[in-house]
Amino acid sequence: MIGGDEVKFPPCTPAGIQEMIVRTGVETSGAEVVVVGRSNIVGKPIANMMLQKGAGANSTVTVVHTRTKDLEGHCKRADILIVAAGVPGLVKPEWIKPGACVIDVGVNRVGEKISEKTGKKIAILKGDVDFDEAKEIAGSITPVPGGVGPMTVTMLMVNTLKSLKFKLGII
């Protein structure tokens, strides 16, 4: 909650989200950020991180959830929409502000299929946002799978390296 240099090991998924936003050049300072989901692992930490002073932050943040009245209205105002509710297809394309940056954190198993490559059963995954329709409206959008997940792993490696440097007294 303190933010700034006091944070040695930021939570991996929110840190990955913020890193993607920064690296894609999306302006966060003064931006309307709507976080759909209030989990302790993603929703609350990313909301707090986007509020902090600094690069990839300085945003105005609203946290909503599946019980929020007028969820659609909140989503439509977002310059940056971060969806981590765990409900497949929750956010409809018409809820997205044209040109918005959409980060879909939801990884929902919606069935199984047989892999053409291996012949084994694999999970069918779907995000919290309808990617195929939303990509026509959003300025940028993350896919599921392949968007936030790899960034979570990357930030875990970053934290691991920081931990070693911290232990060795390098930082």
Tell me what the structure shows.
There is one protein chain. This protein has 171 residues and is α/β, with parallel strands linked by helices. The chain has one domain: 3-Layer(aba) Sandwich (Rossmann fold), CATH 3.40.50. The chain has helices at residues 12-23, 43-51, 71-76, 131-134, 148-168, and strands spanning 32-36, 60-64, 80-83, 101-104, 108-114, 121-126, 140-141. Helix 1 crosses helix 5. The longest helix is centred in the last third of the chain and has 21 residues, at 148-168. The protein starts with 11 loop residues before the first helix and ends with a helix. The mean pLDDT is 95.
Strand-helix topology:
Elements: H1 12-23, E1 32-36, H2 43-51, E2 60-64, H3 71-76, E3 80-83, E4 101-104, E5 108-114, E6 121-126, H4 131-134, E7 140-141, H5 148-168
Parallel strand pairs: 1-2, 1-3, 3-4, 4-7
Antiparallel strand pairs: 5-6
Concise account of the structure shown:
This protein is α/β, with parallel strands linked by helices. It has helices spanning about 10-25, 45-50, 70-75, 130-135, 150-170, and strands spanning about 30-35, 60-65, 80-85, 100-105, 110-115, 120-125, 140.
- Cα end-to-end separation: 21 Å
Q: Assess the beta-strand content as a share of residues.
A: 15-25%
Mean pLDDT across the residues is: 95
CATH C-level name: Alpha Beta
Cα radius of gyration in angstroms = 17 Å
Q: How many alpha or pi helices?
A: 5
Proportion in helices: 25-40%
Total domains: 1
Keyword list:
171 residues, alpha/beta, Rossmann fold, 5 helices
